[in-house]
Amino acid sequence: MKSLRFEIKILNSKETLFLFIFSLILTLSLSCNESSDETVIDFWGLGSEGEFVKQLLPKFEAENPGIKVKVQMVPWTAAQEKLISAFASNNLPDAFQLGNTWVPQFAQLEAITDLTEWLRTSDVIKKDKYFVGIWYTNVIDSLVYGIPWYIDTRILFYRTDVLQEAGFNSPPKTWDELYLLSKKIKEANKNVEKYAIYIPTNEWANFIIFGLQNGADILKDNNTYGNFSSKKFTEAFSYLTNFYKENLTPLGVSQVTNVYQAFAEEYFAMYISGPWNISEFKKWMTGDLKNKWMTSSLPGPSENTKGVSLAGGSSLVISKRSKHKEETWKLIEFLSKPEIQIEFYHLVNDLPAVKEAWEDSSLSSNPYMKAFYEQFNYVVATPKIPEWEQIVFSKLQQYVELAARNVLTVKEALKKLDDDVNVILEKRRWMLNKSK
Amino acid sequence: MSKENNHIEKKYFRSGISAAYFFLAPAMISIFVFFFIPVIAAFIISFTDFDIYSLGNYSNLRFIGLKNYSDLLGNELFWTSLRNTFYFVVAASPLSIAVSLGAALILNSKLVKLKAVFRLAYFIPVVTTLVAVAIVWRFIYHPRFGMLNYLLSFIGINPIDWLGDPFWAMPSIILMSIWKNFGYNMIIFIAGLQNIPEQLYEAAILEGANAWQQFKKITLPMLAPTTIFISIITMIGNFQLFAEPYVMTQGGPLNKTLSVVQYMYQEGFRWWNMGYSASIAFVLFIIIFAGTMLQLKIQKQTA
Question: How confident is the model at residue A17 (pLDDT cuts 50, 70, 90)?
């Protein structure tokens, strides 16, 4: 009763009037803002990119009077869900960042614009300024849907001291060398729980990389059927699952709660992963360990075949329904300038997509970056279909685990994987038939 | 006279009803708009192959009848997730009720001091964020540095990879989930216990009943309504198992902790197979509904 009377009292007082006037002023000032001739571009960045890109923008706004950029940060874990919901409710921002494996999905949704027209006249953004493999992750049916913003790929991180003890003064160059080296490391640590390499069963990338290295076509018939049981993929898959069977890599993923700590403790000596690890490894590898690790481009299936890796990273895209495409393109051009790309690298450690930026001393004199630069010349895109993530995350990883734990043989696992993938791709087959 | 009176009464009653409708309207409308419409929409969607292709262009939507349901029944992964969920419900529900009843009895006993402190301590896990809890429990379960394996090493048990071993993963999730949730039921049991009239116990003591007899003949029967409520709520909650395996194991190892809700979430919000995902939701609804009915029936019969 007491609280009820209290509420009524508030409602009756002069404060209500004040509140009313205050909110009226607020609404008026907001609508004033919109009616001015300033263009506001909405931009969604993901994770730390979304957080730090704000620091680059005052310069852009100074160069382009009349354009304001409003940045919203979307956490990576919720990003895809949020972007697709925004598309469904017609609330997508003018420009946003997309992980480049998501580009096919958003192109299929017709949520993003084909940028070919703008590219024809642009001085800043040109295809040959980028690494070929990375550029093509944004090209679907010869239309360009995104501009690479920053890039990543997976390479080999290794402990120089452990490799030397095993008699290797340089990192493995071929699959055979990698296997031999792993055997030696394991033999030297027979009685302790230490492993040669860490290949987590919940990271599909390694399996796709080795498949692609071996020249496997992951999917067939215009990406409408799984092709995992092909001879080439089977070879790569059994090569990797063998590491589990011979105890060269830990089987579960729960033993390694902290990859960096485990690397520093020599729990494993090699790890295939991306540039986002570098600052963390630096943090853990201190003191005596400071000079005991290095990066290397990936080993290949044989002496003569360079080992490819995945073309990763994020792209900038423009929403198809944006009313300010002209201005938004200017923003993308600005973010693609070499000097801005370097500034961004200093802010968030994201590797620049524009090749010219790699000439900057902060990258060219960094010993860990050499391997990345080398590898970026040998990167390939994964099949560009919306179902890709479902195939690898839900199916490939499942069968990797089953094969690694010897529940299924390699042949059985890959056969079942193909069957599951064919079910997933049924809709795609129907779509392609319909459009014929 | 009486007729007129009756008439007035009726009129009064009728106007009372319309007033009630008036006041109920906001709640009814919002329940209809935000609950029934989505449920009906989801039901319709479950007969289509609504997915990312259809989201972009509705002409790519196919009405496929019961295909989602028949696919579901033929899907190994669905049965795995259903088996895991049943395992969890059957193992965790009675255990959790027993633990919370035990805790409630102890906290309700006259011999215990600092009741408020213990009540708070037991309730804290319920209000703690699951993500924080999961981090702590992941360390407890850690195969190399975990507290649990450390303690077990004193009685000569070799380290067990609790979350990584297909056999132990589900029991580990059950243990953690009971620890996290028993406090809530405990509070309800305490309230139930405090509603039992003291005279009953006094009379029982006079008649020479021992503690066990008192518990069996007074406490349990008097708690029956509370127990029915708690067991239904716990069962429904346990069927909806999601967050614990989601943060602890992501459904692994070998899908041994994949629950139905997690499977539904993955299909719907990670792979955007909305139609298929909706059909999972309705199958789960039917199971929970049947479970609740069964429970009510059994308890009615025994009561």
Answer: low
Residue B266 has its nearest CB partner, among A193, A394, A407, at A394
Residue with tokens 């055997």: A183
User: Is B270 in Cβ contact with A105 (below 8 Å)?
Assistant: no
Residues A233-291 have pLDDT tens digits of 999 999 999 999 999 999 877 677 789 999 999 999 999 999 999 988 999 999 899 99
Q: A244 and A357 share a domain?
A: no
Say if residue A276 is in the same domain as residue A354.
no
Identify the contact set of chain A against chain B, taking CB-CB distances under 8 A: 80-81, 84, 87-88, 105, 108-111, 193, 202, 251-255, 257, 386-387, 389-390, 393-394, 398, 401-402, 405, 407, 427-428, 430-431
Structure tokens at B274: 């909305």
User: CB distance from B165 to chain A under 8 Å?
Assistant: yes
- Tally A–B CB contacts below 8 A: 71
**The CATH number of the domain covering residues in B72-302:** 1.10.3720.10
Examine residue B197 and say whether the peptide bond preceding it is cis (omega within 30 degrees of 0).
no
CATH number of the CATH domain containing A123: 3.40.190.10
Query: Number of structural domains, chain A?
Result: 2
Residue A15 lies in a domain: no
Looking at the fold, whether A144 and A171 belong to one and the same domain comes out as: no
pTM score, two decimals? 0.83
pLDDT digits (tens, 9 = 90+) for A29-84: 555 455 457 899 999 999 999 999 999 999 999 999 999 999 999 999 889 889 99
Q: Find, in chain A, the residue whose alpha carbon is nearest to that of B250.
A: A202
Closest residue of chain B to A386, computed from CA coordinates: B52
Cα–Cα distance measured from residue A62 to residue A145, given in angstroms and rounded to the nearest whole number: 28
Distances (CA, A) of B106 to A16, A202, A319, B102, B206: 52, 45, 62, 6, 23
- List, in sequence order, the alpha helices (H) in A293-368: 325-335, 338-348, 361-364
